[in-house]
Design goal:
The chain contains 14 helices and twelve strands. It is an alpha+beta fold. A hairpin with a 7-residue loop joins β6 and β7. α3 crosses α4 (154-170) and α13 (351-365) packs antiparallel against α14.
Length: 426
């Protein structure tokens, strides 16, 4: 880590701010030391995969819609080296006091491993083999700034990281970032047992702010979008509301289920296949067949898809005020029409709605042009906030009086997606 080459690699990943590079140097040095203490050898590679935020496109991906997401500066990193044992031995400095080990000669799905780290490791390895790529055993020491439940998708960052390890150690970096993302999704769906979409993994893998079109969910298309919050003197925050995620699976599942109930009335598989005008012309008939909430959720889908296109247009024409307005409109639509800001079976628990109310109130009291919306799946979790840099410290103190210290994190959009570099190359 004393080598000038490593400093250049860290600048490539994290930018050239002196404070950030100094902090990352210490962080990587600690991971290298942890690896050496745990495995009794030196690592050959460092790998990094960022967390992500959803900027706009709330609950559209599962019905063929469009999303804007962004990789962020908080990431999961690993010091790694290959072994000859055909085994993965992985230690996480954050999440477990025990070594995780799997045998790569057995890549079958195991019911006993559902919802576990071994399931993800085995699933990623299995998919590499299925796609004709090489795998092998390795030792890894992992450290993460992407906390579980932080709203930044720690699972996707970990999946992309493991895919990057296989790519670096055994495939000379030839596996495309999009394919690494799809491999992570496969492992989470088929081995871990969670029916997630691809947005989280893809944003982590490709980096920057990215518009993803899920019209063909097996082959999503994406394009980078440029945004310079620093030039606008604005900052992006994620506020962890800290409500419980327990018993929310039925609430998450109901959204695509109700949207698809509407789709069936049009002989469609997903909302993207329905002509919006046809939908609006049949609302009276749909009420009798699918109920009001399903109609409102589909109405959100159509309007949200248009807002995603609007964000692209606003940023390309340097209309930052228009961008903020679209984020606010998205938040209002999620609150009122998508209805994913609190769990309907726990009406007394409305931390997301309260966070949005307090933030809007802060904007008004301070005469601020800002934006906020529910983040990700909703019902609990977090909100994202765009506000002027000069108000950052004051807003953080304001919101953390209600949601506890440390719950409001300032983020930067990271241009680098998942990446790696060799430790001892000259």
């Amino acid at each position: 880590m004393q080598n000038e080459k490593y400093n250049d690699e860290l600048i490539r990943i994290y930018g050239n701010a002196e404070t950030d590079i100094r902090q990352q140097t210490e962080r990587y040095r600690a991971v290298q030391t942890g690896f050496e203490n745990k495995f009794g050898a030196s690592p050959q590679y460092f790998c990094s995969a960022p967390g992500r935020v959803e900027i706009i496109g709330n609950h559209t991906d599962h019905n063929g819609g469009c999303v804007v997401a962004a990789a962020v500066n908080l990431d999961t990193i690993a010091a790694v080296t290959p072994n000859d044992a055909e085994r993965i031995r992985l230690f996480s400095a954050n999440y477990s006091a025990e070594m995780v080990e799997i045998d790569l000669q057995d890549l079958a799905v195991k019911a006993t491993e559902k919802n576990s780290t071994p399931a993800l490791l085995r699933g990623i390895a299995a998919r590499f083999v299925q796609l004709g790529y090489r795998i092998g055993g390795f030792e890894a020491y992992v450290a993460s700034e992407v906390g579980i439940g932080s709203g930044l998708s720690s699972s996707a960052a970990f999946e992309v990281l493991v895919g990057t390890i296989f790519n670096a150690l055994f495939n000379a970096g030839r596996v495309p970032a999009v394919e690494i993302a799809q491999i992570g999704q496969f492992a989470e769906n088929e081995y871990f047992g969670k029916p997630c979409g691809l947005m989280d993994q893809l944003a982590s893998a490709v980096g920057g702010m990215v518009l993803i079109d899920f019209k063909d969910r097996s082959r999503p298309e994406y394009e980078k979008i440029q945004i310079d919050l620093q030039a606008q003197k604005y900052t992006l925050l994620i506020v962890d509301i800290q409500d419980s995620h327990a018993d929310l699976t039925p609430d998450y599942a109901a959204i695509p289920q109700e949207m698809r109930a509407v789709c069936r009335e049009f002989g469609a598989e997903q909302c993207r296949e329905i002509v919006a005008e046809d939908f609006y012309s049949k609302i009276a008939e749909l009420r009798r067949k699918v109920g009001d909430r399903a109609i409102l959720r589909c109405a959100h889908f159509f309007a949200e898809n248009e807002r995603v296109a609007g964000v692209k247009s606003a940023l390309r024409s340097d209309d930052f005020a228009g961008f903020l307005a679209l984020i606010n409109d998205s938040g209002l639509s999620s609150l009122c029409w998508l209805e994913n800001c609190y769990p309907p079976h726990r009406p007394a628990t409305q931390g997301v709605s309260l966070g949005l109310f307090l933030t809007k109130d802060y904007f008004r009291d301070h005469n601020i042009s800002g934006a906020c919306r529910v983040h990700g799946g909703g019902f609990a979790g977090s909100i994202i906030v765009f506000l002027p840099e000069e108000n950052l410290d004051d807003y953080r103190k304001f919101i953390e009086k209600v949601f506890n210290p440390g719950t409001a994190k300032s983020l930067r959009i990271r241009s680098a997606g998942t990446t790696y570099f060799r430790v001892n190359s000259k």
